Amino acid sequence: MITRSVFAMVAAVVTAALAGCASMEPTVPASAFYLSSPGMADNTMLDRKYAGNVAKNPNCLGQNVSPALAWRNVPDKTRSFVILWDDQAGRSGLGVSHSIVYGIPASVNAFAEGDLSAAPTAGRFVAGKNTVGLAWLGPCPPHGNAPQHYVMTIIATDLEPDALQPGLSREEVLKALQGGHALRAASAVFRYAH
Asked: Most buried of 9, 19, 69, 131 (most Cβ within 10 A)?
């Protein structure tokens, strides 16, 4: 007969094992083009500070801080990068483009926390327009939803950093990458709920 203490011990061991599996980073080939957020595992639940901040939207209760990003193993012939941040479940499944950033020079391989949610400085990136017409918007899911997935994608391109004008939409940037200008992409996933 299993006693309560044995059952509690087994439950604790199983819970710890499952938690460890959930936070494990996948094995990535050493030469792969790879995007990560330093200090956060892929599929991390974001803290509230990363959520959007829009006074008219009761679901945007954060500080609108962009997470830190870093990437490695840049493809040959890369001249600039594009970063897209999307929530495919947003707007009841119609999707939300949270950020479009492009014109990132090939010499840049990281952004610190808050860099992408601030105004562009020193030619480090060009701001586009997301679904609501802003350059950056953190997660704003409806209260009570299951955690939604926010996919950050970096695209290595052969375009010069100044090739695209500021203020382009996601669709306009992707159209400009047609014809072989996109060299390779990598992504990271964040989750958020409140």
From this structure: 69
